[in-house]
Design a protein that fits this description.
The structure holds 3 protein chains of 3 kinds. By secondary structure, chain A is α+β, with helices and mostly antiparallel strands. Chain A is built from 6 helices and 16 strands. Chain A has helices at residues 112-120, 128-142, 157-163, 168-181, 201-204, 248-251; strands spanning 2-17, 20-27, 34-43, 51-53, 59-65, 69-82, 144-145, 165-166, 186-193, 211-219, 223-228, 233-234, 239-245, 254-256, 261-269, 277-282. In chain C, a hairpin with a 2-residue loop joins strand 7 and strand 8. Chain C has a domain at 341-404: Dna Ligase, domain 1 (2-Layer Sandwich). The chains are: A alpha+beta, B mainly alpha, C alpha+beta.
Chain lengths: 283, 316, 471
C-alpha cells in the first residue's frame, strides 16, 4: 500500500524570542514493512538541518530559530510504501537489547493499580505471545479509546487506567507498563494510520485522525510485534511507524522550550480516492 | 563579560543608590516635620516623601489618600515594608541577592559591605521604630552606601565590570535628583519669589539637604539660598556630584569606556552624549524660561530611555 | 559496637607518632584560647558567606557547616596507599562507564547484571553509542573513605556525578593558616591550594578541539542551590565565568554564552546541575535551569560536559557492591582499597540475612545520598527498626546493607574540651586527558554528636582541615 503523509506543527513562542533551540523527530525510517519513497522537512525559518540519531535510533533534527519571532512552523511530508507483516517487525533499527525496554518511566510507572491490572491478565502457562494478546484483549475491554489529542500529552498508564478511557497514547502507555511488569519488554511507537476503506475511512475515524500511538512488545522466537490495543489488533499495512522510545515523551515529534503547539496530520492511501484522515490537536 | 553579570552589577549599584536616596528623603522629611509650620514645616511633608520615592500608587492602595499620609506609615512603607518593592529593606535584599549571583565579579571588600549590611539589617526590630532608632537606621543606610562606593572605587579593577557598576549608580542618582526636583519644583518657581520669607528658605534648604548639598551651596555660590541657584546647583553645576550634569558627565564617560574597550559603540553612547550636551549648553535662565517642570519631566523620561538602551545593548 | 580506632591515641594511652606534636600543643594551649579561636573561625566563615542550605528546613536557608579547629593528620605513607588506590578506582570507574554505553562487555561477561544497568534510573539511554571527548566520563570524582584500624581504609561510596565539598577543603586550610600559623611551623603540611590550578588544567585538557585556548565555564543551578557558594568559589579560583542555563544558548550544535560583547563560544562546561535538568529538549521538559539543545552540541562533539552525562550508572550503592569485580575485570588487578562488605537486598538470600540482622546493620537506599533515608541499626530503637523493615520488605531492590563499621575517631573540639569523634574522608580525584591529579588530603567530615556515625553536613556533621604530612 502506498500512503501519503503530511504532518504540520506550529510551535508558539513568546513574542520576540531569539535563539530558540528545537528538536523535531519527524523522519520515519525504512524497515521490512515500510519503505520511505520520499520525505521532506520544511521550516518557515532559515536554519541548518543536520540529522542526528537519538538514543533509540530515531532520526531527529535539532536546530535553532534565530528570531526574533513568535512561532515556528514545520511541515513533514512524504510517501511510504508499506506491506503487511502480520505485526512482526523485521529490519528495524535496534540500538539496545530488548531487556532495556523493561525500564519504567514516569508515564509508564507500575503503580499498584497498574500492577493489579497486569496481574489480572497474567496467563498461567509460559507463552509470551499468548500473554501479550491476552493483555491486549484485557486492555481493550477495560479502557475505551477516546477521540482526542493523539499527539498532545497522552495520559500516563496509571491515569489511563483510572479514567477508563484514553487516547491511543494513553492506551499504549498502559500496555507497555503492564507488559513490562509481566517481564515482557515493551516500547512506545508513534506513527500514522491510513484509512482502511478509502470510501468510509473519513467517517469512521472522525476526530481520531491519522496520528496514532501504539506499542511494540518483544516475544522470544518472534521478535518485536506491534500491538494497537485501542483497536485490538496487531499492526497492518495501514500503519506507518515514525518513532520508537520508552514512552510518548521520547517519541515527541517536537520539543522546545516554547509555548503551545498546534498540529495537523493527514495520511491517505495515495492510490485510491483522495480521502483524508485528518486530525488536529492542540496542547 | 556575561550579560547577566553586567546586569546584576548594574542593578546592584542602582539599588544601593536608591536605598541611600530614600534614607535622605526620610531624614529631610523628619526634620521638616519637626519644624513649626511658620518656619516652612508643613503637614504634607510625608506625602511628598512618598511622591519623591515614586511609589504613590502602592502607598495609596495600602494606606488611603496621600493627603492624610502619616509619618509612621510613610516611614514603615519606605524603609521596611516587604510589600514595597523599593523599600530600603527590599533594596538591600535585592542588592545582596544580586551580589550573591555575581560574587565572582565583586571584590571581597564590596561583598563584605553588602553582606554585612544585610546581616545588620536583620538586627533592626520589625516594629515601628522610635525616632532615635530611625535616625540610627538612616545613618546606617547612608554609611553603607558610602562604604560600598568607597569599596567599589578603591578595590575594583577598572574594566567593563566597574563601568557597568558605576553606570547603574549614576543613572539612579540622576533619577533621584530629578525626582526631588520634580516634586519640589513649585517652591523654586519665580512666582513664589516675592514671598521670600522663612517658609521658602526652609523648603529650599530642605531640598539641598536631601542631596547633602547645603554646605556645598555656600561654598559654590557664596550667597544666600536662592531658588534659581538651588536649581542651578542641582541641574547644571558639574562640581556638585549629585547634579544631573555631573551624573551625565560620569555616565557618558563610563559608557564611552565600555565602547572603546569593546571597539564598538551603539545607541546608549549616542543618547548619553546628547543628554550631556543638553546639560552643558543650557543656562538656568534658559531652563526657567522654557519651563522647569517640562525640563525635568523630559529629563526623567530620557533618563529612563537610556536605562532601556543600556539594557538592550548590553544586558540581555 | 566494637571499640573505635582513634587516630591520635592508641588504646594503651600512648600517642601515635604523627599526632605527637599536635597533642603536645593541644595540651599546652588554654581552653579559652581555643574557644576564642573557634569563635573567630565561625565569624570569618559567616563573614565571607560560606553557607549551605539544608533541604526541608524552613528559615534556615543559609547555615554554616560547623568547622572544627583540630586538624586531622594523615602520614605520607598512608596517603601514598590511599592515592594509588583512588587512582585505580577512578580509572576502573571510567572504563566501566565507557563500556556500559558502548560495547557492554561487562554485561556480556556477566560481571554486572544487566538489569542493574538498564533498569537503573541513572542510566541514560541518550548516551548509548555516543563518544565523549577523550573517552573520559568521570573527570571530577569524590571517593568517600572510612578507616577502621591503622592499616585499613575502606571505600564507602563513589561519587561520580557532581561531588561537592572541595570549597570547604580549601577554605578550611585558609582559615587554619590564619588562626594557627604556629602549628604549621611545627609540621610539614602538604599544601592544597594548587587545587584550583589543577582543576583548570584538567578542564582545559578535556576541551573537544585543540587549537584555540578553550573557554571553560561553570554551570550552576543558581543562588538557591545548596552548593552555590562552592560554585562561585570555584569560578573565582579558576577565573572562569559562572553561568546559569539562561546565559547559554545553542546554535548549529555549538554552545555560546551571552556576553556584553555578543555571543562567545563555550568549549568546556563544568556543570553542577543534575543530568535531568541539563536539556529540556531531551530530559525533563519542565527544566528552567538547563540549556535547550545542549545535548545536540554534546553529541556533535562540540562541547565537553564534566562530568559526562550518565555517570550516575556507576555510583549508586548497588553498583558499588560490584566495584571490586569491576576493577578486576578492566584492570586485571586486585583492588588496592577494599569495599565495605555489602548485602544487596535485591538478592533473596542477602535480603533474608539483612532482615534477620537489622539491629546490627546499616541499611541505605541505593540512590540515596546526604545521609537521608538510612537506618543505623545499633543507633535505632525497636519502633524505628520495624518501620524501616516494612519499607525494606516493600521494595528490597532499593536497599543495600553493610555492617556497622566502627569508623575511626579524631580529636575534636566539643563543649567540654577535646574529645574523639567519628570521621570520614572525601578526597577529590581529577582525571584529565593528560593525567590524573589528586591534591593531598581531601575533606574530612566529622560527626559532631558523641557516638554518631553520620557525618553528612545535612545531618549536623562538621568539617576539619586534613593534613597530609610531607615527611
Amino acid at each position: 500500500m502506498r500512503i501519503r503523509i503530511r504532518h504540520e506543527i506550529t510551535q508558539r513562542f513568546d513574542p520576540g524570542s531569539r535563539n530558540m533551540a528545537v528538536t523535531v523527530r519527524l523522519t520515519p525510517r525504512s524497515h521490512e514493512g515500510q519503505f520511505i519513497l520520499r520525505w521532506t522537512l520544511d521550516l518557515n525559518s532559515d536554519c541548518r538541518l543536520a540529522a542526528q540519531e537519538d538514543a533509540f535510533g530515531n532520526l531527529c533534527h535539532t536546530f535553532s530559530v534565530d528570531g526574533p519571532t513568535d512561532h515556528l512552523s514545520v511541515v513533514a511530508e512524504g510517501e511510504v510504501e508499506t506491506q503487511d507483516t502480520t505485526g512482526v517487525m523485521h529490519g528495524t533499527v535496534e540500538r539496545f537489547p530488548p531487556s532495556l525496554f523493561l525500564r519504567q518511566t514516569d508515564l509508564t510507572e507500575a503503580t499498584p493499580a497498574v500492577v493489579a491490572f497486569a496481574e489480572g491478565a497474567r496467563l498461567t502457562e509460559d507463552d509470551p505471545l499468548g500473554q501479550l494478546h491476552a493483555l491486549m484483549v484485557a486492555l481493550h475491554e477495560t479502557v475505551e479509546e477516546q477521540e482526542g489529542p493523539a499527539l498532545g500529552g497522552p495520559l500516563s498508564a496509571h491515569a489511563a487506567l483510572e479514567a477508563g478511557k484514553a487516547c491511543s497514547g494513553g492506551i499504549a502507555h498502559l500496555f507497555t507498563a503492564a507488559a513490562r511488569h509481566l517481564g515482557l519488554p515493551a516500547r512506545h511507537i508513534s506513527g500514522y494510520l491510513a484509512p482502511e476503506d478509502p470510501e468510509e475511512g473519513e467517517a469512521k475515524r472522525e476526530g481520531v485522525g491519522a496520528a496514532r500511538h501504539w506499542a511494540e512488545a518483544y516475544a522470544p522466537k518472534y521478535g518485536w510485534i506491534s500491538f494497537d490495543a485501542g483497536r485490538n489488533l496487531c499492526g497492518t499495512e495501514h500503519y506507518v511507524r515514525l518513532a520508537v522510545a520508552l514512552d510518548a515523551m521520547g517519541v515527541a515529534p517536537l520539543r522546545s522550550a516554547g509555548l503551545e503547539v498546534e498540529e495537523q496530520v493527514s495520511a491517505l492511501d495515495s492510490r485510491g480516492p483522495q480521502k483524508l484522515a485528518q486530525a488536529q490537536s492542540q496542547n | 563579560m556575561l550579560s547577566r553579570t553586567a546586569d546584576n552589577l548594574y542593578w546592584l549599584t542602582r539599588y544601593v543608590e536608591r536605598a541611600d536616596c530614600l534614607a535622605r528623603i526620610l531624614d529631610v522629611s523628619q526634620r521638616l516635620s519637626y519644624t513649626p509650620v511658620t518656619y516652612g514645616g508643613s503637614t504634607n511633608e510625608w506625602a511628598s516623601a512618598v511622591l519623591t520615592a515614586g511609589c504613590e500608587d502602592e502607598f495609596v492602595a495600602r494606606y488611603g489618600p496621600l493627603e492624610d499620609a502619616k509619618e509612621e506609615d510613610v516611614v514603615s512603607f519606605l524603609a521596611f515594608s516587604p510589600e514595597n518593592s523599593s523599600s530600603i529593606r527590599n533594596c538591600f535584599e535585592v542588592a545582596r541577592t544580586n551580589a550573591r549571583s555575581v560574587r565572582t565579579a565583586l571584590t571581597s571588600e564590596m561583598w563584605d559591605v553588602i553582606n554585612s549590611a544585610w546581616i545588620e539589617l536583620q538586627s533592626f526590630p520589625n516594629r515601628a521604630l522610635t525616632r532615635d532608632e530611625l535616625s540610627r537606621f538612616l545613618a546606617f543606610v547612608k554609611e553603607t552606601s558610602l562604604r560600598f562606593d568607597g569599596a567599589t572605587f578603591r578595590t575594583m579593577l577598572r574594566n567593563d565590570a566597574y563601568w557597568f557598576a558605576r553606570s547603574g549608580a549614576q543613572l539612579e542618582r540622576a533619577d533621584n535628583t530629578a525626582r526631588i526636583l520634580d516634586v519640589k519644583y513649585h517652591v523654586l518657581l519665580p512666582e513664589k519669589e516675592h514671598v521670600g520669607g522663612p517658609l521658602d528658605y526652609f523648603q529650599w534648604a530642605s531640598i539641598l539637604r536631601s542631596v547633602s548639598a547645603l554646605t556645598a551651596f555656600h561654598w559654590v555660590y557664596r550667597d544666600s539660598v536662592k531658588p534659581w541657584l538651588v536649581a542651578d546647583l542641582l541641574i547644571l553645576n558639574r562640581q556638585m556630584p549629585r547634579s544631573l550634569a555631573a551624573c551625565y558627565e560620569q555616565l557618558a564617560r563610563n559608557l564611552d569606556d565600555i565602547a572603546s574597550a569593546y571597539g564598538r559603540q551603539g545607541p546608549s553612547q549616542r543618547l548619553a552624549r546628547s543628554m550631556q550636551a543638553r546639560l552643558t549648553n543650557r543656562t538656568i535662565d534658559d531652563i526657567f524660561q522654557h519651563g522647569l517642570h517640562e525640563f525635568i519631566s523630559e529629563f526623567i523620561s530620557d533618563n529612563n530611555k537610556l536605562g532601556a538602551e543600556i539594557t538592550e545593548q548590553y544586558l540581555t | 559496637m566494637p571499640h573505635a580506632f582513634d587516630e591520635m591515641s592508641s588504646t594503651d594511652g600512648s600517642v601515635r607518632p604523627a599526632y605527637e606534636t599536635l597533642q603536645r600543643w593541644l595540651a599546652s594551649v588554654p581552653q579559652d584560647v581555643l574557644d576564642h579561636r573557634r569563635k573567630e573561625a565561625e565569624f570569618i566563615f559567616r563573614r565571607i558567606g560560606i553557607t549551605f542550605a539544608v533541604y526541608g528546613e524552613q528559615n534556615a536557608q543559609e547555615r554554616l557547616i560547623p568547622f572544627d579547629i583540630v586538624p586531622r593528620i594523615i602520614t605520607k605513607d598512608e596517603w601514598g596507599t590511599l592515592s594509588k588506590g583512588l587512582e585505580q578506582r577512578v580509572k576502573a570507574l571510567n572504563m566501566y562507564i565507557a563500556d556500559v554505553y558502548a560495547k557492554r562487555e561487562v554485561l556480556k561477561a556477566g560481571v554486572v547484571p544487566e538489569n542493574l544497568v538498564y533498569q537503573n534510573p541513572a542510566f541514560r539511554p541518550e548516551m548509548n553509542g555516543q563518544r565523549v571527548p577523550h573517552d573520559l566520563y568521570v573527570h571530577i570524582a569524590g571517593i568517600d573513605i572510612v578507616r577502621t584500624d591503622p592499616d585499613t581504609f575502606y571505600v564507602l561510596e563513589d561519587n561520580a556525578r557532581t561531588p561537592s565539598g572541595v570549597s570547604y577543603m580549601l577554605e578550611n586550610r585558609e582559615i587554619m593558616l590564619r588562626l594557627f600559623p604556629e602549628l604549621f611551623s611545627m609540621h610539614k603540611v602538604a599544601p592544597v591550594d594548587k587545587y584550583g590550578d589543577d582543576l583548570l588544567a584538567t578542564l582545559r585538557s578535556l576541551a573537544p578541539h585543540g587549537g584555540h585556548e578553550p573557554n571553560v565555564a561553570i554551570l550552576t543551578p543558581g543562588i538557591y542551590n545548596s552548593a552555590y557558594y562552592e560554585h562561585s568559589f570555584l569560578a573565582d579560583k579558576l577565573g572562569v565565568d559562572l553561568v546559569e542555563g539562561r546565559d547559554l544558548f545553542v546554535k548549529d550544535a555549538v554552545v555560546y554564552m551571552r556576553t556584553t560583547e555578543g555571543p562567545k563560544r563555550v568549549d568546556v562546561i563544568y556543570r553542577r546541575l543534575d543530568d535531568d535538568f541539563l536539556d529540556p529538549l531531551v530530559f525533563r521538559r519542565d527544566s528552567q535551569l538547563g540549556v535547550p539543545g545542549l545535548m545536540s552540541a554534546y553529541h556533535a562533539g562540540n562541547v565537553t560536559l564534566t562530568n559526562a552525562v550518565g555517570t550516575g550508572v556507576a555510583d549508586d550503592k548497588a553498583v558499588y557492591s560490584y566495584m571490586p569485580d569491576i576493577i578486576r575485570f578492566y584492570l586485571g588487578e586486585e583492588p588496592l582499597l577494599p569495599n565495605v562488605p555489602t548485602w544487596r537486598c535485591r538478592e533473596p538470600d542477602h535480603l533474608k540475612y539483612v532482615l534477620e540482622h537489622l539491629p546490627e546493620l546499616v541499611v541505605k537506599e541505593v540512590h540515596g545520598s546526604g545521609g537521608y533515608g538510612m537506618l543505623v541499626g545499633p543507633a535505632s530503637d525497636k519502633a524505628q527498626i520495624e518501620k524501616f523493615r516494612a519499607k525494606l520488605v516493600a521494595d528490597p531492590a532499593n536497599f543495600i546493607a553493610q555492617p556497622t563499621l566502627a569508623l575511626s575517631t579524631c580529636p575534636t573540639m566539643v563543649e567540654k574540651g577535646v574529645a574523639p569523634r567519628h570521621v570520614d574522608l572525601r578526597p577529590f580525584i581529577l582525571s584529565g586527558s593528560d593525567k590524573v591529579r589528586i591534591v593531598p588530603g581531601g575533606l574530612t567530615r566529622v560527626a559532631m554528636k558523641e557516638g554518631s556515625l553520620v557525618v553528612n553536613s545535612s545531618q549536623g556533621g562538621g568539617t576539619k582541615d586534613t593534613w597530609v604530612l610531607d615527611a
